[in-house]
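writing this on my phone so excuse typos. first protein, seq and then structure
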Amino acid sequence: MPTATPDATHTDTPARPASLLDRAHLPFAVGAVALVTLGAFENRATMTVLPTVARDLDGLWLFGAASAAPLVSFVVATVVAGAWADHRGPVRPLQAGMLVFTASQVAMALAPGMAVFAVGRFGSGIAEALMDVSLTVLLARTMPEELRAKVFAAFAAAWVLPSLVGPPIAGLLTEVLSWRTVFGVGVALLPFAWVLLRPAMRAEGVERAEDAEGGEGVTTQPTSEAGTAWTPREHRAVRAAALAAAGLAALTAGGSLLGRSGPVEALGLALVLVGTACTVPAVRTVLPAGTLRFARGIPALVALRGLVAAAFGTAGSLLPLMLTTIHGLGPAAAGASLTVTGLSWAAGSQLHGLDVVQRRVPAVRRLAVGFSLITVGVLGPALTSLDALPVVIGLALWGVAGLGMGIVSPTLSTQLLLFAPVRDQGRITAASSLTASVAQAIGLAAAGALIAWQAPDLPGWLFATTMTACAAVGAVGLAAARRAA
């Protein structure tokens, strides 16, 4: 009997494109978006009530320190989280981040003074670093490249609901009950995110166990060549990050003391000098070689992450304080700026995630457009602080900046994952997050020094000067965007 050859009887059918709704990808996507949503609510709620907290605890002069505290702790925690995820997988640091998040929320809710509140904010930065790096590494190891931009777009979309309801809820709780009740919301919602993430974390743990036992089959979880032992380079990175964090803490604390009377001002100046001496060499050790000179590829991408954080993050942190101080808005009304931020950021990220944009618009051009929008948009609040523009128009321009941020942020993230070797994804992701944290912390330290100098009566020129400087940083990012390819 004649037999047919395989070529004559079998026709290959095109593989169905991967989708976020596939059973292999849906659990992680849902759980990760849930956790991002929780983090977004905590961020929006905290920024909404922070001016009220500072005044209620008689700590306006520590506003800059409380704003920068999570960024300072983020510096060390990102490096630790990156190495931890590379060697042990992303599940354990993710779980640790959730536990630290709970502790920090409780500390802020019960804070008797602004200093204790700042400590709670410090813990919040540790939690954010552990969760951010872990989620990014888990994404890189479980999602095919063609879905990564869509996941980052989903992360941005996860900010929409918290941006809409977070500030009003936080403002209402503050005005009707107390700002302390705001920090109980995050603790109450965390178990839901934990439950949703359990399938993805369990699958990751099983896969790592199979790899360790030499199981067969295709896996998405690479085994680190270094095993579970940290390398000398990673130990140096952690020490350098700790030194950088100490330097940033000194800068922030010293800036808050400048402008005060007597020996306190001299102490502040000494702390600023010591902080600068610690931060600069430490940061150079942690960053990829060539970052400070915008070397093409990964170094330029990491540097651009720092610039966009300094420009957009610093301005956004000051917006609610400017609206409550200069224009007399209450917490709920001032929180509208955070709503604008979340909605416009999500819109920009959704635009970035469109297939037609991914195919036809190169990454360098996307970065140039995004930085242009940020540079122009930040000038809106700057003019509003001088009463040169109505609040509504100023916030509309701020929405333009948010649109630019929504384009720049996922572009940088996807390009980093594209360029980074698989075994170094945790380290490179941590370096990128660290750069953003350091840059924004320096910006907030400078702004905090101006606030402490002028407190308790803050003039409009203070906010205008700071936000104009942020726009200038955005212009530098625009000029350097071509180095990202």
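second protein below, same order as before
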Amino acid sequence: MTQAEMRLIEEGWGALVEQLGLAEATRFVMLLDRRTGGALQHLHTLWSTPSAGQRRAGVLQTRHSQSANQFDA
């Protein structure tokens, strides 16, 4: 897989997580590829890269902040 393809996968995953949340984004990707297991391999690759971990932490922090701010109003 080329670096451009990996970057596209990472950006797509980030967009899915931002829109759907972590659990639903994971579920969506798994539904795309039930027969071959390719989706599982892609998720494993995404979750094992440092940049993915940093994004995951950022998404979780953002979601936590949004939830906290929701109750402050």
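Residues 3-72 form one domain. thats all i got for now
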